[in-house]
Amino acid sequence: MIPYGRQSVDQADIDAVVDVLKSDWLTQGPTLERFENAMAERCEAGFGVAVCNATAALHIACLAAGLGPGDWLWTSPNTFLASANCGRYCGADVDFVDIDPLTWNLDTAALARKLDAAEFAGRLPKVLVAVAFSGQSCDMHAIGELARRYGFVVIEDASHAVGARYAGRPVGCGEFADMTVFSFHPVKIVTTGEGGLVLTNRPELAEHLRRLRSHGMTRDAAQMDEASHGPWYYQQIELGFNYRLTDLQAALGLSQLNKLDAFLARRRELAARYQTLLADLPLSLPTSQPGAESAWHLYVVRLQTERLALSHRQVFEGLRAAGIGVNVHYIPVHLQPYYRELGFKAGDFPEAEAYYAQAISLPLYPAMTDAQQDEVVDQLRRLLGETARAAN
Ligand SMILES: *Cc1c(COP(=O)(O)O)cnc(C)c1O
């Protein structure tokens, strides 16, 4: 089976982890800080706070944004569950903004209309989670303008977008979002096994994120409500978590960062090859948002189902049967039983639902060979060709 995504781990990565295993610090040591600083530097951000996964990163980013009961978090329905669940962890209500039918990212015109209505109803969101779907930023200029006008906090869920750029700057630089979250899950751009990171330019947010990562504890006397009892003393000044990343993982992340440019170049190359090789098939291919350079975490095609006799499911199953590890990203979050229980229903976000009925993620990962990619294209061509014949 050619997988849809796969990590690339080499001997240098393994050596880096082994070095930390032999050191004094398995967690909360110097390698973690080096990894945070390397990510912040690479992305031209002020501060990096690494945590155990991106879900935890989104959770503490929402808390640091002040999200709580009675507040609203809005996000795209075309995302992984975590982009919405982080609002629920904080006790906030969650709502969605439908997607643009071409970029498959949150539609900023729909966002503007919804904000206008929400202002009238007195239900403006406190947080917008702008998901950089497949590795491509949303229209962050427009989102930034709306954020200034309506006063919400922008958290960019850039789980797909490590190394991506927008308007000539790295995603995460803080020019277009208050906080940016990355995931280091093995299928993402670089991996730490499990891992996540929040970038921000605001020191007070970075400090708060660090405290939330570690039980809400502080050793800073200035934050305590009484004099220190001695050098051992700490205080818990709010409710936090143990969301720490280990130094073993940080070592893997640091070593992976050395290869980020090579990974991105190969992903770009494979995506460009797909664009050419698939151009004549009854598919809608990914489009680029002006100013956005995708990290190409995913390569998604939409079947032009009205031109095909085989269903979406039949094409998917045909590819799997042929050894092509395709996937679907994403089942619209509002259609999950948990969110339907909260009142959402089919038809609420028609663009995301229409997209879901046609989308297939094709294999894409740095170690994928041209021959493997040709095999994916041949199998897809064969199935869609059969489809075309069946339609005649
Ligand atoms: C992978 C992913 C997450 C969650 O990442 P974890 O590190 O697995 O917690 C969140 N949002 C999006 C869009 C993702 O793809």
TrEMBL record:
One of the Pfam families matching this protein, by short name: DegT_DnrJ_EryC1
Entry EC number(s): 2.6.1.92
Active-site positions on this chain: K188 (proton acceptor)
List of residues that carry N6-(pyridoxal phosphate)lysine: K188
Gene Ontology biological-process entries: polysaccharide biosynthetic process
Gene3D superfamilies: Aspartate Aminotransferase, domain 1, Type I PLP-dependent aspartate aminotransferase-like (Major domain)
InterPro entries referenced in this protein's UniProt entry, alphabetically: DegT/StrS_aminotransferase, PseC, PyrdxlP-dep_Trfase, PyrdxlP-dep_Trfase_major, PyrdxlP-dep_Trfase_small
Superkingdom of origin: Bacteria
Leading EC class: transferase
Keywords: Aminotransferase, Capsid protein, Pyridoxal phosphate, Transferase, Virion
SUPFAM superfamilies on file: PLP-dependent transferases
Family the UniProt entry places it in: Belongs to the DegT/DnrJ/EryC1 family.
NCBIfam families for the chain: PseC
Protein name, entry field: Spore coat protein
Originating species: Pseudomonas lutea
Gene name of this polypeptide: pseC
